[in-house]
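To whoever is on call:

I kicked off a structure prediction for a single chain this morning and the downstream step that reads the tokens threw a length-mismatch warning. I double-checked the sequence; it's 588 residues and nothing unusual in it as far as I can see. Pasting both halves so you can look.
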Amino acid sequence: MDPSVIALTDSVIGENYDAGSIARGLGYFEDDRVQLIRSAEGFLASVVVGSGRSTYVVRVRWRTTAAGIVIDDTCSCPLGGFCKHAVATILTARADAVSEIADRDGGGPSWRSVLGGIADDDARSDDPSPLALQFSVSTPRRTHRSPDAEADLAIRPMGRGKRGQWVKTGASWRDLYYERPGMGLDPAQVAALRGLWNASPRHSYYPDTGPIALGSFGPELWLHLRNAADVGVSFVSDQADAPVRMQAEHAYVEVDLTTVDDATVALATRLVVGHDAPIDDGKLGLLGPRPHGLFIACPDGSIDLYRLESPLDPAIRRLLNGPALRIPVGELDELLETYQPILARHARVGSSDASVTITTRRFDGLSLLITRHTVEVASTSWAARYVRGDTTTYVGLDEPGGPGRDRSAEYEAAKALDVPTDIASLLVDISGMPRPVTARGVEAVRLLTEAVPWLEANTSVEVRVESITGTSLPELREATADPLVELDVTDAPIDSDRNDWFDLGVTVTVEGEQVPFASLFTALSLGEPVIVLASGTWLRIDRGEFDRLRALIEEARGLVDADPDADADDGTIRINRFQISWFEELAA
């Protein structure tokens, strides 16, 4: 007699269905998607509502064999069976059966049915058949299309034979992918090797039976190998089942700088494994298109596997395969400044004979460069300052990431500026991060006389000021004396068409320096608050001495007739006889 549905315990379900089907089937069971049509010992029939509007007809049969309970099913879904719909059907029927027993007995299921299921699970779990991964070294034939073909490792699953040896029969990738009840394999090991197959570039829904090249995997290979080892999958070589060891230490590339003579430094590269031991013997192979690991095939047939600290850059790989580089001593500083940070991302850089002192760049703060274009125009640019020994390098904050940059330190330094709101627009953007600006007139004055002193007093920002012409420009300083404004009215040159015109002369001096009238006239017309003189002296023109002159200029803007032949810098405005009262008002 076939057993009751209660005998289909979680362990039995786990032996007959994959983890994904079980997880999704549990969800369908909890969502009450199953309608049982028939439930008998050894047989179930149901209709299951799918994820859309479709419904699927499910039939499940089971029987007891020497290997345990074997389930067989069919489903009208695209998979045809061994799916989430079948799992949901079993869980629903089992729950109904347990509930029926509880209702009949006035309590839970009988102690015999509960303990009997545990006993059955324990009996079936005895000595599951173990699995292994067999590693074999393959050396492809070099051709004109693949002149640099290198040795690689291939892996394939193996099962335990009747005599205890590892055999291919019944343990191919396809066998594991479509594992069926009765195979008696360790479910955890099957799941680990399925995960390895799924990570392979050759992954498909119909796996082949041949070996897979480890070189085709990406860095995720090491996670799957570790998972397989953790659940007890044996790693063996195809050479008399010699062991394959996955070493805990990482391999790495070492770049060694040594002095050849007074004029030359040698740069050599090599692969190093645990305890700083160079790789000298055995057949070595790199794993991956951009190598992330390596193997060493030892003379006794065993194989050692090492993961690299970081994937091997193609340029570093060429260095490994080539002779040592010769670097003139005069170019050593360029190597350490420009190329050592790049090399350090892929290798450990050192000097085995201590003949070359290797210092690395470190972030040393922010720097603000102010470039003065004229006495009243300046632009800014922000940079990160890096120091290596006695060498200082500036890298623009808006430049792409370069070798040896500490972006997080740069960001933290920029975020810590906390610029006051009254000068913020001269230094930072709306988010408070440094930004370049071009300042003219009053903004240039505020930049150099307010923003720079604040930075120097409250931050560690280095401020550098330079002239775009290479010649120094005078420093800006505010005039302390009051400006002197002088006016004069003279007859205009004899002109038959301009008999009613006069010349109004305006002369402004401050601290003995004459203010160019054209610049003053323009500044007053535009409402500028300051004017900067060629000497670097600047004065405010939003003051009483200039209020009346500014108002008259604004009122007369459409009437003033400047002589086109006159020099605008001579301080002359031509007015007619009807405007003479303006002069009297200005002179009052």
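Update from on-call: the warning came from a stale cache, not from the record. Cleared it. Sanity check on the structure: The first strand starts at residue 34 and ends at 40.
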